[in-house]
Write a structure and sequence with these properties.
The chain is an alpha/beta fold. It has a single domain, classed as TIM Barrel (Alpha-Beta Barrel). The chain is 36% helix and 17% strand. It starts with 18 loop residues before the first strand and ends in a 5-residue tail after the last helix. It binds beta-D-glucopyranose.
Amino acid sequence: MITIPILCLFSACGSGEKLDFPPGFIWGAACSAYQTEGDNFKNDWYQWEKINSFIGTPAGKAVNSYVLYDTDAKLVKDINLNSFRFSVEWSRVEPERGVWDDAEIEHYRQVLTSITSRGIRPFLTLHHFTNPLWVMNLDHQQVPIADLGGWENPETAVEFAEYAGKLAREYGDQVDYWLTINEPIIIALSGYLYGLYPPGERVFSPGQITQKVIPVMKNLITAHALAADAIRANDLVDADGDGRATVVGLAESVVLWDPYPPDDPQAQAAARRLDQFYSKNLFDSLTAGGFDDNLDGVADDTRTEWQGRLDFIGFNYYNHWYVVNIPLLPAPIAALPCISFRGLDLSQLGVGCPAQIGEKSDMGYEIYPEGIYRILKDLSGRYTVPILITENGIATTDGEKRAQFLADHLRWVHRAVSEGMNVIGYIYWSLTDNWEWGTFTPRFGLYTVDYQNNYERQLNRGGEMMGEIAECNCLSLGILKRYPVRK
Ligand code: BGC
């Protein structure tokens, strides 16, 4: 592990030292198929966006990346990133159960070639929220395809592993870094509690979490474990020549949960329960093999087939939310997460959540850079595998605000690295603006997309700065001066 003297790295950064990152640090940008490719008709989200009035605008052509993939790979290269995270659309390559579409498989081979031929390392995500219709069909009248019933069915996990094995055989010569599932907890919560994602269950009955959400989570954990085995068995080629043919992980959403009131021991216990439920249960299961059902800090469901299935901990960081202890709420959480999301802000509702303060993104999320460090510290104290930031980003139309966001967060990432935490990289969400699950309004891109003008991509100030950082593998003095630490 690389250790760098701490003194000149964080606190004294204003006093004349640039902040170097370790050699080989992963600098990347991310995207996902449904949000960028366009014309994806064979999955549940395509149905979902038609039957829900809260979906403002359908994805349509998204940002036309199915056509413009080579342009996108060039954009990655133009800003010196060494890595690109993208997803393969399962419903394209396997439109029917057990039937592979050779033309689509070839398409993604071309996508990969456009990435690897530029010396960029691909991070291939297998599942980013969308399911083929034969896995989850929301409208049997329109589309008479039998489905598996989505992630409630253990067969879906088995089928997912088949798909993973197939991709590992097809693309193993170009891919070493595999991410199985994007944000399992969001699939489980948004699909089976909040009703925001397919299949759209919005059931706040006391048993919904234990009887539905947790079993779905366990099935997703099993799906990852089976897929990891399939990838390890089928990708035997070390594509980047570093001595390893496969590095398998996933990207889980991690929220920094703080108790409210901060000094209240019961609120502190509530925050621990929520954190265990939200992300630790998944990471614990896939490292040590144990899932803590009742959130008392001790694993209840232990399975060796889950154990040792993560080569790295990958996490997406967007939110800092408070937690209020409310024993009357359903066990095992018995607490209220003070979320602010898509116009819903619990701090406004007089339910005990603190008022939100500080600067926000266009998603309404508090901008809390220190959170990334606190999460890194927490995860690296608990797990021995390396940690990768698989997503972090800001929705804003202001390139300078994005640049400041990057400087602020990367100072904290640097601090984590300088303290010896095994952080291997930072992947920004997202490369270009794209479809944000119902709307094109939030702009996350390092490149701004002109939807009126052939989806032209224009580098913004945030993207420019990401390029400077990746090129120097550091936060330069110029950047540190232009974007000073803010109180
Ligand atoms: C998801 C992305 C999404 C991003 C910004 C992440 O949770 O993986 O699909 O666009 O957040 O909201």
